[in-house]
Amino acid sequence: MTLARNDYRRIYAIGDIHGRSDLLDRMVGEIERDLDGVGGSAEHALTVTLGDYLDRGPDSRGVLERLVRNPFPTRYIALKGNHQELFESFLREPAAGRHWQQLGGLATLRSYDPAAAARLESSSGAAADFAAAAAALCAAVPSEHRRFLASLRPALDLGGYFLCHAGIRPGIAFEQQNQQDLLWIREEFLVSDLDFGKIVVHGHTPVQHPEVRPNRINIDTAAFATGRLTCVVLEGASHRFLAT
Fold it and tell me: Are the C-beta atoms of residues 174 and 194 closer than 8 Å to each other?
């Protein structure tokens, strides 16, 4: 049975994971305990991950290995983050490798091919070095991981909530939002006090604690560095948080 979007009675939205498979495992346990403790049917619950599964943390491969098989006790939808776009850009155009490396991409290469990562670290950083690293990474990524990354949605409209990685451009209708903004926007969105008509649930911009504003909820608590992976639980107009 396929549920209509307004049939989801509980939504678990998880912030940026960034290679922390250990925290992902712990969050799966938190969601399982929440379902058992608070009650409610898993059939009418949905888990959404807000992107940025790769880079920075130590186990990007392990994160994808788990997500491709849906480790959650609920239905599951995965959204795209800007680091997935960086990954795709690097494989397509290795010349983008320097920017990718500066934003934590070497951790992804290391998780798939440690020898290739070591070679790139010790190289001069010439174009040929990045081309070789991209070829090694391309060969090391399993096809099921590629299919998962290709399936990622840019956003998800769930009635009173709009879920995306980075945010939206104020003043633009939800259905007209540009994917680049959904993956990358910061200041114009973060400083806006407009009533968007829905609560935007997002990550992308690290905060020490979940940030709740009248028009948005930010759940990126920099898991790769802090060890705190955050999930917001949405039930009707109410929300609460789970954390590792």
Answer: no
Alpha carbon separation from 116 to 1, 105, 113 (Å, rounded):
45, 12, 5
CA atoms lying within 13 Å on the CB side of residue 41: 6
Q: Torsions phi, psi of 117, nearest 5?
A: -65, -40
Domain ranges of the chain: 8-81+152-243, 86-145
- Determine whether domain 8-81+152-243 maps to CATH 1.25.40.10: no
pLDDT digits (tens, 9 = 90+) for 69-107: 999 999 999 999 999 999 999 999 999 899 999 999 999
Cα–Cα distances in angstroms (integers) from residue 14 to residues 19, 121, 135, 143, 219, in the given order: 14, 32, 31, 25, 7
Tens digit of each residue's pLDDT (9 = 90 or more) over 173-184: 999 999 999 999
Neighbours of 199 (CB within 10 A): 21
Distances (CA, A) of 31 to 14, 114, 116, 149, 165: 10, 32, 36, 23, 21
Beta strands in 94-195 (DSSP E): 155-158, 161-164
Whether pTM exceeds 0.90: yes
Q: Which residue has the tokens 């990954």?
A: 87
